[in-house]
Amino acid sequence: MTSNAARVLAHPSREEIRVEGVLHALSDPVRLRIVRHLATAADELACSRFELPVSKSTSTHHFRVLRESGVISQFYRGTAKLSCVRAEDLDTLFPGLLDSVLGAAALQAERLGKS
Amino acid sequence: MTSNAARVLAHPSREEIRVEGVLHALSDPVRLRIVRHLATAADELACSRFELPVSKSTSTHHFRVLRESGVISQFYRGTAKLSCVRAEDLDTLFPGLLDSVLGAAALQAERLGKS
């Protein structure tokens, strides 16, 4: 039990999430890419499934920023660390914000010829 | 004419505005406050009309970040530096993004008991 408890990652409660922190978390290209990927996934994704143009430690940092700002939740299943977007929390606090950011990112990617 | 030309401030063209830069600019509480104020103003506002809890140089820095990210435009009228939100550019590039950020900020301010 102790070892499992130690592997539970800290998350802000819904009430602790701040719009400034969410915007900061989403203002980095790599983090925005992670969230776009997670938002289109049917279920939670393992961190290791992301192919990111950064080192493992940088990737871990980006996931931590997303988690600590309340944009994603992360939990362990066996040895895999899984992530998913806190869409319900975000939509309750800030209706339409996540969708408009994802929409803006998609439009920009299309405009610049990137996926 | 030369002295006037030297006082024209550099702005990104609409095509140069990036969603990451806009989100970064809006992720700071003071900058978000400036933009909320500008967005509700009937016309452009002078920087000196803002009462901000920061020094003049910090305030100038925040306005520059907003301008260089494409969130606001700034221009001189006489000795006053005026600012306004680039709402049309932002809405064309990223439909609904600015409104959802402003809406989220307003909801949060209401929830936390701040204006």
Give your account of this protein's structure.
Two copies of one chain form a homodimer. Chain A is an alpha+beta fold and 115 residues long. Chain A has one domain (17-98): Arc Repressor Mutant, subunit A (Orthogonal Bundle). In chain A, 52% of the residues lie in helices and 12% in strands. The first copy, chain A, contains six helices and three strands; from the N terminus they run αααβαββαα. In chain A, strands 1-3-2 form a three-stranded antiparallel β-sheet. The longest helix of chain A has 15 residues, at 97-111. The N and C termini of chain A lie far apart (43 Å). The interface between A and B is medium-sized, with 25 and 25 residues.
Overall, the morphology of chain A is globular
CATH class of chain A: Mainly Alpha
Number of helices of chain A: 6
Which strand order do you get reading across the main beta sheet of chain A? 1-3-2
* CATH domain fold name of chain A: Arc Repressor Mutant, subunit A
Our count of domains of chain A comes out at 1
Q: How many whole angstroms does the radius of gyration of chain A measure?
A: 14 Å
- List SSEs of chain A in N-to-C order: HHHEHEEHH
Please identify, by name, the CATH architecture of chain A: Orthogonal Bundle
Keywords:
Arc Repressor Mutant, subunit A, homodimer, 6 helices, three-stranded antiparallel β-sheet, alpha+beta, 115 residues
Task: Please give the structural blueprint.
Two copies of one chain form a homodimer.
Chain A: H1 2-6, H2 19-26, H3 29-40, E1 45-46, H4 56-68, E2 72-77, E3 80-85, H5 87-93, H6 97-111
Antiparallel strand pairs in A: 1-3, 2-3
